[in-house]
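Sanity check

After download, print the first record. It should look like this:
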Amino acid sequence: MVSLNIKLPENFLDEEIRDDYVVSSQMKQVWAVELDLLNKILEVCKKYNIKIIASGGTLLGAVRHKGFIPWDDDIDLMMMRNQYDKLCDVAEKEFTYPYFFQTEYTDPGSMRGHAQLRNSQTTGILNVERGKCKFNQGIFIDIFPLDRVVDDNFLFQKQKKKALYYKSCARKIANITVNYDLSENTGVKKIIKKMMHKIFGKILEKSHLERYFYKKFEDTWKKYNDRDTVMCSSLTFAEACEAHFKKVEYFKEIVELPFEFMSIPVCYRYEELLTQRYGNWRKIEKGTSCHGAVFFDTSVSYEKYVKGNKKL
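Expected structure tokens:
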């Protein structure tokens, strides 16, 4: 495993059983890298008085397990858009190698809709992106910006349609430029895509047209952030639906909860938020990470897999 900037408790990396689930030593190593990333981002947020809190399964894990859900493999954080923008402004200065603060602006083609803090000396490649992407694919934690949800559903659906159109434009351009890949194409499609890349790839890449459309996508979701709305959500991700909406008032106060051998900030009305999101969240049901399968390597940089020096 790569060296970390946090001190791990003795035996933390040992295999153990939690809630009748076997957490392997390999997964413990992944957790350790992610906890190091968590520690780093919390240090930066504290330095600049930026408010950030646990989200999704990480919040559930903090409340119910005092750490990771045993079968989870990632850490999710969220913050209001104005706080997210503050973090983006200081990221280049504060996150230096091996840390990498990834957005579409710092790493074209990643196109997540949110930021990820990655460890560049490691590998965390989503199965759906195996062999297709050249952007940084080190082990990561997610940082989601929260935008205000307009109270009028007609306006929201109109906003959503426009935002997804811009994202579709950005993705199509990326598939000709930075994410150019022929592995899933055959016959005529393969020939056409190859010609498009050869003729337009360099021109489009230099024009930054992909970034233009991606910014339009983000700006569309920010449209109502000056309104005093009831709800907010990580709209630029896959959560532009009512099931993932959160009350803005949940975020007015932040408290700390234990998380493994550290602590993590959460919204003070976390039980209400968890009930809204998961229903009977106190009942433990074994599951899997929402990522599905991820290829992890805590000792080798993703670059060796991307360049083909090592096989996935």
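If your output differs, re-run the checksum step. Summary of this record's structure: The mean pLDDT is 89.
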